[in-house]
From TrEMBL, chains A, B:
This is Phosphate acyltransferase. Belongs to the PlsX family. It is an enzyme of class 2 (transferase). It catalyses: a fatty acyl-[ACP] + phosphate = an acyl phosphate + holo-[ACP].
Length: 334, 334
């Protein structure tokens, strides 16, 4: 049976084109029915063109308002009562869709999801989880990357359980290793938050907790899930993105500097294309909001149609894996 | 007049060879006199060989003990009373040397420096500052990267003053821009520590504070100095290192994957060499411990002779710039 996924058609920087085309791509490739939320008069012609006469399960759900990247999240969530985000997430709450995807304002998406969907039982705060590539080829999961900046040990314990369940059931990693992001492997290394959290995590029997991990372990396969507060995770994520941008720019410049290199660059073009693909966040479809009562995926504002298609696929995989019931029963037993 | 720099000859992973050869390189290139601290019987033959009969101002200062990477910092600092670090830093305290360099145990070096040198007046805690490459070519400074994990707003204010003075006087950046590392540019973005710190930094007249900055600003030239607590900075630094390792490995693998790419790789070898050089921390000679009453540079354990040579150069530049008096007078007036 196809999975119903609802998409905020007005989320990304270039909305609604990438959303509509991504929805059509997803409906063509995966066993999904896609509901595009937005102004019908703008979506209809783009959808008609994208479908090229093909019959595919892509539908339009009208909404008259949308939240922009410039909107202040808290204010927009309150004032725009017919926003694409709110209309879309209500469909998830009412069981008319199994998951929601947006490429829009992250703060607004998190706030709307929290308000409309509510929290899973046993979870105090949601966490935004992002997938990182590793040297070993399997992805790793970093959370929280910005949903909650000031966390207490209980929040981090809940994040650990949520990350473990997601890595196991959606990323299909067998008994994923969960680490606490710190500044050294020894138990005594860390700040007051991580030192207070460590014994709680060690006492958990429902996950495979391995101890403290460091920033570099995000990429070398030593850990499958790294847990931290949203401030630390967000700083780390943006530092990672900055490093990748610097390295790409440096490499490009170095390659330009000699004639031989220019020839070399031409010949190794295929290799670079593959290299870029590895770093391409759009392959993973965006960040996952864990802890809310439903499925909510938040993509980059720069999402193109392929990223939207992947986001829809990830939302469907998340919904089918029934991660949320696993999180609730794990937290109940801990 | 040459600057006297004292070097822990037993610090790096492959000590004492890189230290001795690096000292000779530095004495040959720069206006410095280098004092190598360590067991005379081990250092003497290596020094004789490295000098190849040349007369250079490189001297041996005997010390019978040294702290290893496996030593627990606090314990080693207490128990090894004739350690190379302690003997070397005492020479700085007594005015017999203008600066100290070690490629050894960072925790032990920081603790010994704090104990032997004491703190600058107006500084409560030292900060470890590291230099990062940027897209624009000028370096940026990130501090603290691990000296103090739990900080209060006053600590961060002091770090900001120290970073500004170092960037201005040693990195020679004109009126360097100082930012507070956070998760968004707006004043309200951040955690409780950064939100409490921001107004204090805005009130400082002795530095060029520009507001919140993000992880990616470390590399794009939007800021010259980024200030954070040691936990956040250490996680960011290790995430950056992990990203660079991942990207290098991915690129190598991508290049191996096709015959054309192999040819391309051969031809663009020179470009890669330059690319790697850009990312090479050893160019910058290590991290700088700011806030202690003296000059202390802490290099990577993997430092080779070139990194040691650069570390000695940086120590001499730091000593000549008289950063510390600037920090004290700035903090007095704020």
């Amino acid at each position: 049976m196809p999975t119903d996924i609802v998409v905020d058609a007005m989320g990304s920087d270039k909305a609604p084109e990438p959303e509509v085309r991504g929805a059509v791509l997803a409906a063509r490739q995966y066993d999904v029915r896609v509901h595009l939320v937005g102004p019908e008069d703008r979506l209809r012609p783009i959808l008609r063109q994208a479908l090229r006469g093909q019959r595919l399960p892509v539908f339009i759900v009208p909404a008259s308002e949308w939240i922009t990247m410039d909107d202040k999240a808290a204010q927009a969530v309150r004032s725009k009562r017919d926003s694409t985000m709110r209309v879309g997430l209500k469909m998830v709450r009412e069981g008319r869709a199994a998951g929601f995807f947006t490429g829009g304002n992250t703060g607004a998406a998190m706030a709307t999801a929290k308000m409309v969907l509510g929290m899973l039982s046993g979870v105090d705060r949601p966490a935004l989880a992002t997938i990182l590539p590793t040297i070993k080829g399997v992805p790793s999961l970093l959370l929280d990357v910005g949903a909650n900046v000031d966390c207490d040990p209980d929040n981090l314990v809940q994040f650990a359980v949520m990350g473990y369940m997601y890595a196991k059931n959606v990323l299909k990693i067998h008994n994923p290793k969960v680490g606490l992001l710190s500044i050294g492997e020894e138990d005594l290394k860390g700040n007051s938050l991580t030192r207070d959290t460590l014994p709680l995590l060690r006492a958990l029997t429902s996950i495979n907790f391995t101890g403290n991990v460091e920033g570099r372990d995000l990429f070398n396969g030593h850990t499958d899930v790294a847990v931290c507060d949203g401030f630390v995770g967000n700083v780390a994520l943006k530092s990672i993105e900055g490093t990748a941008q610097l390295l790409s720019a440096s490499l490009r410049e170095s390659l330009k500097s000699t004639v031989t290199s220019q020839v070399g660059a031409l010949l190794s073009r295929k290799a670079f294309a593959e290299f870029k693909k590895r770093l391409d966040y759009s392959e993973y479809g965006g960040a996952v909001l864990l802890g809310v009562r439903g499925v909510c995926i938040i993509g980059h504002g720069s999402s193109n149609e392929k990223a939207i298609m992947n986001g829809i696929r990830v939302a469907a995989e998340f919904a089918q894996a029934e991660v949320n019931s696993g999180i609730e029963s794990s937290l109940r037993s801990s």
